[in-house]
Amino acid sequence: MDLLVCYLLQLAILCISLPLVFHIYKHKSSSTKLPPGSKGWPVVGEGLAYAMATKSGDPAKFITDRMSMYSPDMFRTSLLGENVAVFCGVSGNKFLFSSENKYVSTWWPRAVPQIMHFNSDQKSFDNEETSEQRAAVVEFCKPEALRRYMSFMDTMAKEHLQRDWSPYKEVNVFPLTKKYIFALFCQLFINCKDSEQYLTRWESSFRVMSAGIVSLPINLPSTAFSRAVKAGKFIHEELLEIIRH
After folding, report:
1. Which molecular function GO terms apply here (predicted)?
2. CA 96 to CA 74: how far, in whole Å?
């Protein structure tokens, strides 16, 4: 009898507590000024919806659906274990790119530094580092640089088409395009003459890393994230060896 009374008392406390917690959480959420939207499921967020849209070949549908539901300018969601605000309209993107290091700052999702094996576990950059990165990208995209690389890129594209496209009646465009871009990266950015050798050694590791970056950052054996961390370590060590050489 005492056990039954104790059980009923605990059940009554639970029934009273849950509505109270829900009321406090709802009041707190409504008092915070946030963009319209939804964080989806606990932990997972809206990652599954984004993954399904990507798998169907139309990842933009994830964005357009929420633009129609919430706002054409901005909405909030939860992806890759992070709460994020997505800017969609012209004015929102203008604000984003004109306010860097003033109202917004560059940052990485928590999975990226671990997979890429950055020297620092910081998720954001200081002003100097961001400026250096932007300057490096601009240098590669200058008309002078593009003219210097254009003939080389054209030659590689012709060789790629003759070797991997022309002999076959049917080709899978997406993986072959990735193969060409990867070979181009090996040649232009790290100056690897034998790009086929590195392509064979790195292709599977980069594929595992890509899958891990868009997965939940749960570092347990056999998870996509755990495999991506190992693959990232392999690529990191390979690049360091090339730099030393």
Report:
1. heme binding; iron ion binding; monooxygenase activity; oxidoreductase activity, acting on paired donors, with incorporation or reduction of molecular oxygen
2. 11
User: Does any domain span residue 113?
Assistant: no
Residues 154 and 92 in one domain: no
Per-residue pLDDT band for 129 (boundaries 50, 70, 90) equals low
Last residue of a domain, one of 80, 98, 116: 98
* 133 and 92 in a common domain: no
Reply yes or no on whether the pLDDT at 174 is more than 80: yes
Range of the domain at 150: 127-244
Looking at residue 151, what is its pLDDT? Answer: 86
